[in-house]
Write a structure and sequence with these properties.
The protein is an alpha/beta fold. It has a 6-stranded parallel beta sheet, sandwiched between helices. A 3-stranded mixed beta sheet has the order 7-8-9. Helix 5 links the parallel strand 5 and strand 6. It is globular and about 60 Å long.
Length: 299
Amino acid sequence: MPAGRIGVVGLGSMGFGMALSLKRAGFDVAGCDVAPETVAKWVAEGGRGAATPAEAARNADAVVSVVVNAAQTETILFGKDGVTETLPKDAVFISSATMDPDVARRLAKQLEATGRHYLDAPISGGAQRAALGELTVLASGSKSAFAKARPALDATSAKLYELGDDAGQGAAFKMINQLLAGVHIAAASEAMAFAARQGLDIRKVYEVITASAGNSWMFENRMPHVLDGDYTPRSAVDIFVKDLGIIQDMARTAKFPVPVSAAALQMFLMTSAAGMGRDDDASVARMYAQVTGTKLPGQ
């Protein structure tokens, strides 16, 4: 089993699962999160707790950052009690946040100037796959960064895509995934709410569509939340407000039209504005139901 010390910063649904996978693979894992109760939960699993990113990075071979956005990543790296205060020279910072590719390139350049490595490594697969060590990782960076990160990547991923020598490529691939994911969730939610408005048995709709050409991974994965009236956040509405917003910014800079993802962004914005921003992203269906007076399970 591999030996080594790894810090995991961000013990949310994805980060906690990744930390478990790393621990199971034999690493000494220090977990850090803004919520003390989450760190306590990690300690109860047999991991080491860390009060700050700097503490998690001390004597580490790698730090895996599993936070929401670029601003949080930058604070973890260069803010007070940040990783760069303690991360050994020649160690690697593995950034799994979804962000604008230009920001990923800037953060990589800043960190590499200090003698550490930066791997741009967004992830996909959900909390269950994170806990099983079966994520898809969309990574880019120098050969040295890949070499330093590979033991951690092997422990947390089933599919590792090496997408280029420069940070930012992984982020760009992830944004294409997020464009499709957001559009598919919005479309699935619209279809399910429309089916309910037609008086159809939506459980039967789910059965039929998942066996038909109109199915998508997001329809199959998210619509059970609607059927059960359970909007406990696995992935929150505001995640797609952020990610589809990044896509709009990228498209505007490139002068490239993205009208379908723009429409999806408006659906997520409306859902967030209706007070469901921190709820499961399938809440877009609830927004449709509220606007149209349609009844869904749990309402």
